[in-house]
Write a structure and sequence with these properties.
Length: 641
């Protein structure tokens, strides 16, 4: 089968290419990338349940905390709070020495041998003068703990200590035990490992992101940006400043999957957002990764899958949303003499972050009188009046091949005809079967040249594998990843149209996941890359900035790019038969220096215990112009011109 690669018609890709999309779902921030090890550390948890436009939010500040034994009373209070933004705290009363309270910490504390940990908390004591045992215990014995003496003056005080673990220990317990009977107030616990990147991010997960070499990071959503109702939307201003003062918010994904069969309450009804990682930390993450930030702001429409709420176009309250977008650009790019640039500088980053992109809305579409098109035009006008260089990422709805998708593109094209800078690109989402991805691998061949696309959320959903459901790591099949690779060759060939792309979702914590498949799975101890991760990585690492004209026959899928004398060719053979591929072109292929292959049973997938069932492997280079393609295989070939 021939694969023809020509320089005729080649062009320089204008966009960023492969990035990542980080949304706070699947416990991938609190309990995941945020290295904080304790759960509900400030007693602000909410229990959320209900259905469309009728969500019930109940304070459940004691969630995740339980007595260590009998004679212990836990009471959540809010009079004379430590921080008014997060007013709830714990009153701990014990009737005998040696008892106290312990934290769930998701699946328990994992200690690494030789690792240091910083533990801190706030306490208020009126008459308790003895010490507390605070830290990690195993079977009631202190492993990483210290006795801390409280000041009995009726005021809140912060206590902190550092300790190093001498053992490796999994599923241990974080506890506070009083050394005599009495009562105290507690709030704002923290336990952070020394190896957290910038003291914020869990190292193994951050390093897996780094190894993807993403060109950009879209954050923090997704549906989280919209909220299940407008009150629940992500407020970026509440996510900056002192961490203890960042107001806790319940997570839209706490009610994903509610139905009569589960009494409109899921196992994740306490899923919340502590905002320990907020917009400032997201920008720092982008710096760490060498990726450009792509924050997303609300346009005053709640998640259209879960709510009918929106701010009417003639409501003065809409100005708040527009100002939030403008102030965000100032926070990222403004000098220290501006209001929000000063906030950034005071947090430790005097230099602007250099924001280029801004997502306006998520999966919005014209519906139920929300006048989305007119409101987007208003946002675009106001943003570009003040910040003409900002590249706005628009949206054409949550799906493709639908009437709303067609309508959105017609509206977008009309505006682009009047103003080429109306949007830099429009965000398309598709969670589809492998068959759909193969059928549509060439769909961007026919897009108008002035209609740029950000493929912001996509993944292959293999029927019957548990896709779009809870806790289904088996959904990350090679069958799906191979189809994604084929589709990505189409995006790469059309890099003048598809200027940005990102798989979704990014992370999933085992046992805590609302949506599958996910690119990276983890628990409290380990993490592993899926076969889908390696496909994304290969496209990210081995892509040039010049796109060559590529054609493949016989059911193969291929793309080719060039960078500084190297030609990167990607080839997918989705069939169950071995195929002989022959390369032709209008230039000298020169030497074939490297071949990277992924091939295997379509039903294979990596697991936490077997993380390398299928990974990329180098194979010996063959003759430059031919290659045997095993069944169900994906290859990256690197030629010297």
């Amino acid at each position: 089968m021939k694969i023809t690669i020509r320089e005729e018609g080649k062009y320089t890709a204008p966009g960023e290419g492969v990035g990542v999309f980080f949304e706070d779902l699947n416990y991938d921030l609190d309990g995941g990338l945020y290295a904080e090890m304790l759960e509900n550390r400030n007693f602000e948890a909410k229990d959320v349940h209900g259905e469309w436009d009728n969500y019930i939010v109940e304070n459940d500040g004691g969630y995740g905390w339980t007595p260590t034994g009998e004679g212990v009373a836990l009471k959540i209070k809010w009079d004379r709070p430590l921080f008014i933004e997060n007013p709830h705290y714990l009153r701990l009363t014990v009737q005998k020495a040696g008892e106290g309270v312990k934290n769930k910490a998701y699946d328990g504390i994992y200690l690494q041998k030789g690792m240091g940990y910083t533990i801190s908390f706030y306490a208020r004591s009126y008459d308790y003068k003895k010490k507390l045992w605070v830290g990690v215990l195993d079977g009631g014995k202190a492993v990483l703990a210290k006795k801390v003496r409280l000041r009995p003056d009726g005021k809140w005080h912060r206590y902190e200590f550092h300790a190093k673990s001498r053992v490796e220990l999994d599923k241990a317990s974080f506890e506070v035990r009083m050394t005599e009977a009495g009562a105290i107030h507690l709030d704002c616990f923290s336990m952070m490992p020394d190896n957290a990147v910038k003291g914020i991010f869990r190292r193994d997960l951050a390093e897996m992101l780094r190894d993807l070499k993403p060109k950009f990071v879209r954050f923090p959503g997704g549906c989280v940006v919209e909220g299940n109702n407008l009150e629940n939307r992500y407020l970026w201003k509440a996510s900056v400043g002192q961490k203890e003062r960042r107001r806790h918010n319940w997570n839209r994904w706490a009610v994903h999957g509610v139905c009569p069969e589960n009494n409109f309450r899921t196992p994740f009804s306490h899923y919340g957002q502590t905002l320990g990682v907020g917009y400032y930390e997201y920008f720092l993450l982008c710096e760490c990764l060498g990726a450009k930030p792509l924050p997303v702001v609300s346009v005053g429409i709640a998640c259209q899958y879960m709510s009918t709420q929106f701010v009417p176009l003639d409501d003065p309250a809409l100005e708040v949303y527009i100002q939030e977008a403008l102030d965000l650009v100032e926070f990222a790019n403004g000098g220290a003499d501006t209001v929000w640039g000063r906030v950034r500088a005071e947090m430790g980053h005097p230099k602007p972050f250099g924001l280029e992109y801004l997502g306006v809305g998520n999966e919005q579409w014209e519906d139920r009188g929300n006048e989305f098109y007119k409101r987007f035009e208003l946002f675009e006008k106001r943003i570009h009046e003040k910040y003409p260089a900002i590249k706005i990422i628009g949206t054409v709805g949550p799906t493709v091949d639908t009437p709303s998708h067609k309508s959105a593109w017609e509206w977008t094209k009309e505006n682009l005809a009047k103003n080429p800078d109306f949007v830099y690109a429009s965000d398309e989402h598709f969670y589809a079967s492998p068959e759909w991805l193969y059928r549509h691998a060439n769909m961007y061949d026919d897009y108008p040249s002035n209609c740029r696309v950000y493929a912001g959320e996509y993944a292959a959903h293999v029927p019957g594998s548990g896709c779009a459901g809870f806790n289904a790591p088996q959904a990350n099949l090679w069958e799906g990843a191979l189809a994604e690779a084929a589709f990505m060759t189409g995006m790469e060939r059309n890099s003048d149209i598809v200027v940005m792309s990102s798989y979704a979702p990014l992370f999933g914590r085992l046992g805590y996941t609302q949506w599958s498949p996910d690119l990276i799975w983890f628990d409290g101890k380990r993490a592993y890359a899926t076969v889908n991760y390696y496909v994304q990585q290969l496209f990210s690492l081995f892509t040039g900035n010049v796109v060559l004209n590529t054609e493949a026959e016989g059911g193969l899928y291929a793309s080719a790019t060039e960078l500084e004398g190297l030609v990167y060719v990607k080839v997918v053979n989705p069939s169950d038969k071995e195929v002989e591929a022959e390369f032709e072109g209008d230039f000298d292929f020169g030497s074939l220096t490297r071949i990277i292959r992924m091939a295997g049973d379509p039903a294979v997938y990596n697991t936490i215990d077997e993380p390398e069932k299928l990974v990329p492997e180098d194979v010996a280079p063959t003759a430059p112009r031919s290659l045997t393609l095993p069944p169900h295989s994906f290859h990256v070939l690197i030629f010297h011109k």
